[in-house]
Structure formats: C-alpha cells, structure tokens
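Q: Please design a sequence for this.
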C-alpha cells in the first residue's frame, strides 16, 4: 500500500480492520464487528484492537483519511477535516464531498478501489483456477483429529520431547520454533490456542519475555506460558514471578508435570493424566 509515496506494509489483521472500516466509510463500526473481522472465532481483548488501530493510524498519517474513535462504540474511517475543530472527534458527519481537495478524493477512491480489487482478484482467481489456492488441506504432521494447536518455542527442542509427545497423544497439535523470529512468523500465519516458551535462549536470558512483549506490540493475541526452572531461593522465586507477570505472559510453569497440567487446562479445559 502506498501513502504519499511511502510504501506501507500491513499485517493481515490490520488489513481486515481497514477493509471493514472502508466498506462502511464515514459510519461507525462497532468494536465487536472489527474484532470478528480481524480475529474470527477467537476471544481477543480489546487492547489488541486498539494496538491494531494505532498501527493503522500511523500508516494512514498524511493520507487525507483518518480513523476516529467513537468512544464506547467503535471506530470510523473518514476524510480529514480541513480545519482543526471542524468535526468533533466522535462525530459521524463528513465534510461535503464537493469541499474535498482533489488529492483527497483521489486517495479515498484509490483506497476503496485497492480493497475491492484485491477481493476481486481472489474471487476471479478461484473461479478461473489461475492462482495457487489449495483445493485440499495441506499435508502437515498434525493429527487430523487434533482438538487444539499450540506453539512451543525453545532453542533446545529435545528438552521437551516427552511433554510434546504427551500433548500429541491428548490430541493437541504442537508446532515448534527455535527462535523468536521463527515464532513470530508462525504466529502471523497460524492461529494458536497457546504459546509455550522457554525463558532464555542462547545468550539472551530473557528472550521469552522479549518475545511476549513483541507479540503484544504486534497485536498477537495468543496467551504465552513461560516454561523454565524454579530458582532455589524464595526471594528469587518471587522476583521470577513478578518479572514474568510484568512481561504480559499469561502463566508460568516450572516442572514437566506443571506444564502438562496447565497446557491441558488452558487448551482443552481438562486435567492432565498423572
């Protein structure tokens, strides 16, 4: 997407939100509708939507259109008023189209055309079978009857073989990554019920916590469970819990039995076999 000559890259969730707003240009779109558009069939906190809106606002800065909050309701996409104070922050009326500068009209038209064109390309491609859309599910190592999928991040995956094998037997599919970069890429293209991460990787003793913060900044809603070892001293144990909580991680597991039990409870809603 080009804005004032700048190339702007949007993640799929931000694009879905922009498309939902553009389809109802100048009208309020409720938060629930935007959450459903960007995170279908997922329970996501409103903070994820707010972060995605913030990214879109930065991307649209200087474009002639803006996203405005309708407090307590949702958001709307509109043309930027000519003068400050012309339109209240949560108002729906737009400047008369005849008053818009030619550049703004062109940008708005381009935005809507691009969105419609992308939708059209997908529809035409499917109809003509000229684009590489799969007609059958891709072959993966996931069990066909898997009831949930999680991501496990650890630079020493062999350490978790027994836990992962147990989860697979319980019909939990487990995808693995050894670096934060790989984990974030997998999170962009897959929906995970949970992310289990080690605390430190390589020379970075806080890699798991940094990944958790990066996920939050990028609007990735999957909860994170940090799996590490328990410090021997009570004071260090308290410091560890506080550090994990401040990072935004949802949970902390310190033993193989604990990680099995907590994963089972979170993703399948039942206890683990002892």
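A: Design:
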């Amino acid at each position: 997407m080009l804005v004032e000559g700048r190339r702007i890259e949007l993640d799929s969730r931000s694009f879905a939100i922009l498309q939902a707003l553009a389809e109802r240009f100048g009208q309020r779109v409720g938060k629930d509708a935007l959450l459903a558009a960007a995170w279908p069939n997922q329970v996501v906190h409103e903070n994820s939507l707010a972060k995605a809106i913030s990214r879109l606002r930065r991307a649209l800065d200087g474009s002639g259109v803006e996203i405005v909050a309708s407090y307590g309701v949702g958001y709307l996409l509109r043309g930027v008023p000519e003068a400050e104070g012309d339109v209240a922050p949560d108002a729906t009326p737009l400047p008369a189209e005849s008053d818009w500068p030619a550049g703004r009209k062109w940008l708005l038209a381009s935005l809507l055309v691009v969105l419609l064109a992308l939708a059209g390309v997908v529809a035409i491609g499917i109809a003509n079978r000229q684009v590489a859309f799969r007609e059958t599910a891709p072959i993966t190592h996931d069990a066909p009857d898997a009831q949930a999928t999680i991501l496990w991040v650890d630079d020493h995956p062999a350490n978790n073989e027994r836990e992962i094998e147990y989860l697979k037997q319980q019909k939990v599919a487990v995808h693995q990554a050894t670096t934060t970069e790989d984990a974030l890429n997998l999170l962009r293209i897959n929906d995970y019920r949970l992310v289990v991460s080690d605390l430190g990787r390589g020379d970075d003793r806080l890699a798991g916590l940094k990944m958790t913060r990066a996920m939050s900044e990028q609007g990735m809603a999957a909860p994170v469970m940090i799996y590490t070892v328990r410090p021997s001293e009570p004071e260090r144990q308290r410091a560890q819990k506080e550090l994990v909580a401040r990072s935004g991680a949802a949970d902390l597991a310190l033993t193989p039995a604990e990680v099995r039990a907590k994963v089972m409870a979170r993703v399948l809603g039942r206890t683990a076999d002892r």
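Q: Thanks. Anything notable?
A: The two ends are 53 Å apart (CA to CA). Residues 102-128 form the longest helix (27 residues).
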